[in-house]
Here is the input.
Amino acid sequence: MNDFGGPTRSALVSVVIPVYNEEENILPTYEALRSALVERGGRYEIIFVDDGSKDRTQTELRAILDRDANVRVIELARNFGQTAAIMAGLDHARGDVVAMMDGDGQNDPRDIPMLLDKLGEGYDVVSGWRRNRQDAFWTRKIPSWVANWMISRVTGVRQRDYGCTLRAYSSWVVRELKLYGEMHRFIPAFASMVGARIVEVPVAHHPRRRGTSKYGLERVFKILLDLIVTMFLRSYLARPIYLFGGFGLFCFLLAGLMGCYSLYLKLFEGISFILTPLPLAAMSASLMGVMSILMGLLAETLSRTYYESQGKSAYIIRNRINIEAP
Here is the structure.
């Protein structure tokens, strides 16, 4: 590491690549990545995490293992999702710095040396920004723009492209990450919570030439729910009474106003309490919605406590090849 904490050529670089049914993209991705890392120089390891693929992805990965001793493979027992696969790779990464990219051929491995050099300028997280994104406009770009704007507004961490997997991290940031659900897109926000210095740089993006995308519009709803959880964890995890107590005081205030208005109607307008059901119905519906969200946040906190207090992980490994348990 240099004076800024960035990687020198002697530092070990770990590259984590989660894959799911990408048999056609494994070899081209590996060859392009290996070429970029060899050209940069220094030590490296490439960690492929097979997230329960049902095609020939495992066969392709095992063939690469026979060619390159720097390649490691983690095979998950089933499809746990991209976040769990990323977490499995990060848990096993031994590098002084860790880079991450998709295995679908759309990220350009030649950008990784640039991200690593940017870490050398004193940053802890370098995020890729797909400035010329090669995806469908209505189903991918528009939802992504909306999500990026919302996440930036809520978390306070301004990023143009939260959905870009291509990133580089200092190892100490990786050690602080605990990801569940679909939280991988919020990594810059979580890194900011532990004091990481973050920068975003333009990276290349290629159209998908082989295989099919694993994402649809249903991802928008997952992002919205995960955004609520992220906001809670960022602002209220250490002091939840501020959230729940504030809501309680609001309810008391609202109940008092409604009670006073009901008394006014009764005493001065001669309207019986039982003749005004609409305010009660509206209040009941509002409380039910808010209570549902609060119960979801409590459940999320309990889930994290369960995982972390008992040493549980969000994934189950079927097999490790050329890699040791962390």
The mean pLDDT is 83. The chain is about 50% helix and 15% strand.
